[in-house]
């Protein structure tokens, strides 16, 4: 996969980490010029990750996820819950950054180069839909969900 480095500071912040063995994810850095305050419950802010990708083919996509520590401990999560990077997208990867803490909490300050999210790559399956009136195969679960099997 080709990557364009749109912000040269990425090279100092850790592009070698993109190949860390054992890590499933690529950390994404906040490419901002100065510390950025994000108020609790304010509309999500788009922060550039300083990279653009060219996927080798359309069999893979990227998913942007929160970092556990940032989200659980600090309250810094994604305004879109999960970001989907389509394999035909060649623009800068953007991180929808949201402070989920209660109104009245102090703002969260994002530092330039801070790792605010992470991205994984997943295979894409493209099932061919055949439109039917009823399914020919039955299952034990059928339409049961949302706790239908117990707590
Ligand atoms: O967190 C994100 C989510 C999306 N994108 C980029 C890559 C993605 O391929 C494109 C479109 O995202 P998506 O398909 O989720 O957006 P949409 O709201 O469905 O708009 P579109 O009509 O552009 O598909 O925006 C990001 O950079 N970061």
TrEMBL record:
Enzyme class: hydrolase
Gene3D superfamilies the record matches: 2.70.40.10
An annotated GO BP: dUTP catabolic process
Hydrolase as UniProt keyword: yes
Catalytic activity annotation: dUTP + H2O = dUMP + diphosphate + H(+)
Highest taxon of the lineage: Bacteria
Residue ranges of every copy of the dUTPase-like domain listed in the record: 13-150
Similarity comment: family membership: Belongs to the dUTPase family.
Gene Ontology molecular functions: dUTP diphosphatase activity; magnesium ion binding
EC number annotated for this UniProt entry: 3.6.1.23
Protein keywords: Hydrolase, Nucleotide metabolism
Name the record gives this protein: dUTP diphosphatase
InterPro entries registered for this protein in UniProt: dUTPase, dUTPase-like, dUTPase-like_sf, dUTPase_trimeric
Entry-linked NCBIfam families: dut (TIGR00576), PRK00601.1 (NF001862)
